[in-house]
Amino acid sequence: MVQFAMTENAERDGVVLNQVIIQKRRIIAGTRNNKYFNSIVSNSEVIGKTGVGWPTIGVPIAGCLGDQHAAMLGQECKKGVAKCTYGTGAFILLNTGKELITSTNVLLTTLAYKLGPDALPSYALEGSIAIAGAAVQWLRDSLGIIQSSGEIEELANEVENTGVVYFVPAFNGLFAPWWRDDAHGICIGITRFTNKAHIARSVLESICFQVKDVVDSMHKDSGENDELKDENGDLILRVDGGATANSLLMQIQVDLLGCPVARPANIETTALGAAYGAGLAIGVWTENDVFSDQGSDEKTTTFHPNLSKEQRKTRADSWCKAVSRTFDLDNLSF
Fold first, then answer.
1. If you write DSSP's letter for every residue of 85-103 in order, what string do you get?
2. Lowest-confidence pick of 5-14, 36-45, 131-140, 260-269
3. Is 245 helix (H, G, I), strand (E, B) or coil?
4. CB 249 within 8 A of CB 303
5. How far apart are CA 34 and CA 28, in angstroms?
6. Cβ atoms within 10 A of the Cβ of 12, count?
């Protein structure tokens, strides 16, 4: 599965949107009727064998997925299950099964995976965030507030909240669901008493608020009743990527989402997904083996929200106000 991006600009409600959304829909439509692109092929079938120059000759090459699609499979995301990969950016995908859902909330419609030559493809709703872990790197490399990325959790834990500081890392505009290329990064709510711990915590919160924005749009697109919930009626977001080792980040995330977050013991699930694809192709395991109930895995850490619904809404409203302050700043000058 090859990853690529095409863009074009279009006006919508007076806002210039990045039309990756439109283009992805065209791509998927084309692959379905063969008019513009080749057919969707399997991510899980033998496509060749290792040859001369490899340590071992004749090993089947049988799993081929893009990184986010592989992470979905590694997280065992069947229909109705959402996952978020936290890296330099953040990438949230919700498996919609065999149904291709066209987003009305400016998310992308994309392929999830196709597990076998004769299998039907699974589709997904996708929301991408440009700046997630990159904001932590900015604190480290540009501001020198921390010496290593791992220090941010301890520093942010020195304060109980951000002291009404809101940081919006629109370093390259804002991606889903805002799609504003005129947005610039801001840090607002600073007072005489703001210190570096407040700034560090606001950076972590900015990552989580952006994920919440995408998940909220997924709720609207897919319908909450269709999403997989636990025995308490809660949607569980599965997470992976290096940043998920930060337990404070995960707790902030569940508090803002209002639903549990499940962190597997192996947080690098992309390679695992590729291995699943290969193993399915050569009969190492079945789909029933792969899509077992991850929640029963005693090594999975599940975080639960502590914030009340009212507190969650108040903070989300403040975040949206901060985001609105980033707009129309593309003409700033030195």
1. EESSSEEEEEEEET--PPP
2. 5-14
3. helix
4. no
5. 10
6. 11
3-state secondary structure of 281: helix
| 3-state DSSP assignment of residue 63 | strand
SS3 of the chain = CCCCCCCCEEEECCEEEECHHHHHHHHHHHHHHCCCCCCCCCCEEEEEECCCCCCCCCCEEEECCCHHHHHHHHCCCCCCCEEEEECCCEEEEEEEECCCCCCCCCCEEEEEECCCCCCCCEEEEEEEECCCHHHHHHHHHHHCCCCCCCHHHHHHCCCCCCCCCEEECCECEECCCCCECCCCCEEECCCCCCCHHHHHHHHHHHHHHHHHHHHHHHHHHHCHHHCCECCCCCECEEEECHHHHCHHHHHHHHHHHCCCEEECCCCCHHHHHHHHHHHHHCCCCCHHHHCCCHHHCCCCEEECCCCCHHHHHHHHHHHHHHHHCCCCCCCCCC
CB atoms within 10 A of CB 310: 8
What's the whole-model pTM score?
A: 0.84
Whole-angstrom distance, CA of residue 111 vs CA of residue 181:
25
pLDDT for residue 3: 32
Paired strand residues for 94: 82, 125
Tokens 């700043």 -> residue: 329
Q: Tokens 């950076």 — which residue? A: 203
Question: What residue type is assigned to position 34 of the chain?
Answer: N
Token pair for residue 312?
A: 């969650």
Rounded-to-integer distance, Cα 53 and Cα 309, Å: 59
Give first-to-last CA distance, the chain, whole Å: 43
Phi-psi region of 98 (alpha: psi -120 to 50; beta: other; left: phi over 0): alpha
Lay out the sheet containing 122-129: strands in order across.
108-113, 122-129, 90-97, 82-86, 237-240, 261-263, 301-303
What mean pLDDT do residues 215-239 have? 73
The encoded tokens of residue 73 equal 């499979």
Residue 205, both tokens: 């919160």
Confidence (pLDDT) at 43: 92
Bridge-based pairing of strands 90-97 and 82-86 is antiparallel
